[in-house]
Amino acid sequence: MSLAAMVVTIVFGAVVALGVVGYLIDKSADRGKD
Amino acid sequence: MNLAHIHLLLNHFPTVGMLVGLGLFLISLAGKKDDLKQASLVVFLGIALLALPTYMSGNAAQEVICKSPDKITCTDHGVSKALIEKHEGAALLALLFMEITGAFAWLGLWQYRRMSRFPRGTLAAVAFFSLVTFGLMSQAANIGGEIRHPEIMSAEEAAAAQAAGAQPLGRVVASFVVAKTWVWATCETLHFVGLCLLFGIASLVDLRILGFMKSISFSALHRLLPWAVLGFGINMITGMFFFVAAYDQYTTNTVYQWKLVLIMLAGLNVLYFTIFDEPWVLGPGDNAPPMAKFAAASAMVLVVGVIFCGRMLPFLGKSF
Questions:
Q1: What are the angstrom distances between the C-alpha of B185 and each of A4, A17, B86, B91, B244?
Q2: Among B4, B35, B44, B58, fewest CB within 10 Å belongs to which?
Q3: B185–A21: do the CB atoms touch at under 8 Å?
Q4: Interface contact A3-B226, CB threshold 8 A
């Protein structure tokens, strides 16, 4: 795998992981409200 | 006063502070006192912030006492380079767990603001990580004490300290970052992703408090804060990769020292916007009180200051 492909893959993987964690935290703010 | 002096000053805070925070936290759980839970989480968060300059000033202290040209032994022959690096590795592991504890503590404070109760899962995570962190911090502190106090070591420990042995964690991470070209490039890109999240959300919150976009309530913007903290988390992890790999570029760099001071102050600002009542009660159309406006204006200056210092590392600080 070339250097550029490796960097792009990891960066996008990390951003997706960030999205999932952020979504779960955001969802936790709704729990127990109703 | 130099940074070695600062390290001596700061290095007691993470261990003693964790003990205080942990004690408060356990009492609050036993007594089911929400105020005390909140106070202990603030202590954990404060220690998580202070642990950063504590760790970094440690490398600066090493620079002061180990300036020998061969970089294997120390200029001061009374101390062992192998033991210093063992202390560095133990401190890095303790720092990692401290920051995880701090992240869960912040999450608990944010959730409490929104729901008026602490979710069990978050409290369980804080309890687990704070206990592990206290153990790791104590171990790192003990090894640190042995550097200048060989009288507290047994004969076997003293012999082991002088031996090269396995490479400590800090140096393993450094070799990894330096040897693999993609690591620095990836971390640099992610550092900017984190920066955009942090700056973007901080700007929205600060501008609302200062009087822009008044139709939005503060609680709506408070919802975005975890994304800013995630951005900070990315920047801390990627930043630590840079620091551990080339600490001598940073410890001697005044611009970097300023950056760290500004990060600490910005952290206090985040705490204000996370838990205090003044901004929280701002509904649509409301004008923020002067204290909140001061916090928002200072937050903007601090964040821009952090970005400026980071960007200026190679220019004003002559790094790289």
A1: 9, 19, 28, 26, 15
A2: B35
A3: no
A4: no
- pLDDT tens across B212-245, in order? 999 999 999 999 999 999 999 999 999 999 999 9
Q: Which two tokens stand for residue B164?
A: 């090269």
Q: What is the per-residue pLDDT for B63? A: 86
* CA B84 to the chain's CA centroid: 21
Please list, in sequence order, all residues whose beta carbon lies within 8 angstroms of the beta carbon of residue B310, skipping any fewer than 6 positions away: B195, B259
Which residue, B224, B296, B304, is CA-closest to B263?
Answer: B304
Pair B141, B88: CB distance under 8 Å: no
Q: What is the pTM of this model?
A: 0.92
Cβ distance of B223 and A29 shorter than 8 Å: yes
Helices B254-275, B290-311: inter-axial angle, 10-degree rounding: 150
Query: In angstroms, rounded to a whole number, what is the distance separating the alpha carbons of residues A9 and B18?
Result: 38
- What would the 3-class secondary structure string for B58-86 be? HHHHHHHHCCCCCCCCCCCCCCCHHHHHH
Q: How many helices (H) and strands (E) does chain B have?
A: 14, 0
Respond yes or no on whether ipTM tops 0.85.
no
For residue B99, give both structure tokens.
Answer: 């920051």
Å from A21 to nearest chain B CA? 9
